[in-house]
Amino acid sequence: MNGKMLHITRKGDYAIRGMVYLADRPFGTVCLLTEIAADVNVSKALLAKIFQQFAKLGLVSSSRGAGGGFTLGRPTEKISLLEVIEAVEGPILMNRCLLAGGTCSRDTFCTVHPVWIEVQEKIRSLLGNVTLKQLAGEQSIV
User: Fold this and answer.
1) Which of 30, 31, 19 is nearest to 57 (CA)?
2) Considering the entire predicted model, what is its pTM?
3) Rounded-to-integer distance, Cα 112 and Cα 88, Å
4) pLDDT digits (tens, 9 = 90+) for 34-89
5) Interval 105-137: pLDDT, tens
6) Measured distance CA(33)–CA(36) in Å, rounded
């Protein structure tokens, strides 16, 4: 393949892995960063940065000291794959013209613009409807 592809960065992939790990545990279970990083094959330092960012957004809760670690900030059915991805990657955009109104001078007459909007909405909808509960195997996605 010679073309470019839309993709999730390595950091985004690691973030998803770490969150699914937490989602696989009973809600409220405190997990050590070293255990999570080892299990999902991610550097502890990078996962720490990701989870610190998640803590600011309420996706995870952290506790320090003996018995400290990370837990999900909300129940698994209340955290979407879209939230996890956008917390790390930023907004999902099909084209830069969708960044904000007026970003592209052609958006009012471009025939492709409505297609980009529809594709973006469908991707966001799909990812927004997949929860950590589903990814953790607690129920089927289909």
Assistant:
1) 19
2) 0.84
3) 28
4) 999 999 999 999 999 999 999 999 999 998 876 679 999 999 999 999 999 999 99
5) 776 778 887 888 898 899 999 999 999 999 997
6) 5
Q: Return d(Cα 14, Cα 98) in angstroms, integer.
A: 27
Q: Which class is 10-132 in CATH?
A: mainly alpha
- Spell out the domain ranges in the chain: 10-132
Tell the residue number behind the tokens 């592809």, with chain if given.
Answer: 5
Tokens 């990812």 sit at which residue? 127
Provide φ and ψ at 87, rounded to 5°.
-65, -30
Rounded-to-integer distance, Cα 58 and Cα 103, Å: 31
* C-alpha span between 69 and 29 (Å, rounded): 9
State whether residue 131 is helix, strand or coil. Answer: strand
- Reduced to 3 states (helix: H, G, I; strand: E, B; else coil), residue 63 is strand
* Distances, alpha carbon 95 to alpha carbons 39, 75, 104, in Å: 35, 33, 10
Strand partners of residue 121: none
